[in-house]
Amino acid sequence: MSNRKVNITPDTTWKETTPGGVILDAGNAEDFKTGDWRSMKPVWHEDKCKHCLLCWVVCPDNSIKVENGKLTGFDYDHCKGCGVCTKQCKFGALDFVPEE
């Protein structure tokens, strides 16, 4: 199935793309870093975090990393900087700062 994957580059011709932009393989979001358009990003303050994981529940991009039931950081390659996680945190463990 992976031989059906199309990596589009500036040199790719229209004949090499899928018709109508059809997505042939499921789960291909892991192949594309979508966090590079972000203008704001969440910053985690571990000392204030209660590991309630409400931020993980509301994240639309599944960009909050959790191991053994505790928050461990962010997947900035896929976080689009929507800020939903920072708005729900009642403990001040997440700041929302401009991307540098």
Into which percentage range does the β-strand content fall?
15-25%
N to C succession of SSEs: EHEEHE
The DSSP helix count reads 2
* Basic shape: elongated
Number of β-strand runs: 4
Please give the oligomerization state of what you see: single chain
Low-pLDDT sequence parts = none
Evaluate the radius of gyration: 17 Å
Strand order, sheet with most strands: 1-4
Structural class: alpha+beta
Q: What is the terminal separation in angstroms?
A: 39 Å
Percent of residues in helices = 10-25%
Name the average pLDDT: 88
Question: Which sheet architecture does the biggest sheet show?
Answer: 2 strands, antiparallel
What does this structure look like?
It is a single chain. The protein is an alpha+beta fold and 100 residues long. The chain is 10% helix and 19% strand. It has two helices and four strands. It has a two-stranded antiparallel ribbon. It has a two-stranded antiparallel ribbon with strand order 2-3. Strand 2 and strand 3 form a beta hairpin. It is elongated and about 55 Å long.
